[in-house]
Description:
The protein is α/β, with parallel strands linked by helices. It has helices at about 5-15, 30-65, 100-105, 110-120, 150-165, 175-185, 190, 215-220, 225-245, and strands at about 85, 90-95, 130-135, 170-175, 195-200, 205-215. It contains nine helices and six strands, in the order H-H-E-E-H-H-E-H-E-H-H-E-E-H-H.
Amino acid sequence: MNVKNIKSFIEFYESLGVSTYLSQSPRFSNITNNSNIKERVNTSSMCEQTRENTIDQLKSLKNKIEKSECNLKDIASNLVFSDGQYNSKVMLIGEAPGAEEDKMGKPFVGEAGKLLDKMLKFISLDRRENFYITNIVFWRPPGNRTPNDQEIKVCLPFVKEHIKIINPQLIILLGNVAAKSILETDEGISKIRGKEFFYMDNENSLKIQVIPVFHPAYLLRNPIEKKHMWEDLKKIFEIIKEKKIL
């Protein structure tokens, strides 16, 4: 077949929408490709099973929380469970829902939540894509008061189960209540903010890096502290890059 015929032959097949041609690759390459396809299918199936298992565990946890003996659930409008991506490697834990959160049933959707989202976007974190967020207490305390010891005691085991299910690589604690509850410390957030800690769960073999920071509601009341928050955000971003979380 001369060059002219070859050109016409190719143009003919292109007119039919064919854009892939036979090459001189060894025939066994198809076997390799099929093997890769099977491997991708198996991996995809495993990921789907893991995804469904996580969703089932979260549904079960939420059901247990709804049946718990926390006195706040009879006062609040909604249980505020979580928001964000459950398969994320970054988990944020705050204090308790406020008025807007109680109304909508989602954490951090009021003014403090808007500030938090805005700050986190500077370090490439977005709840629609790559972080998961919840609170220590799942119902709004009346008047937005700080949750008391009994309310925290009732909810904390569920928070720890929540952490086990999400199994993040990094936990960011927002404010005093979250930091003291998870780290089991009496030191205030001003002393421990920006420092590195580890959340230990020996029963489930978990050791997760933790960074406590100011609660965004505190920053709204004390904007001068935003400069310290910026320092902490930069540190968090370095950890994210180091761990290749995103």
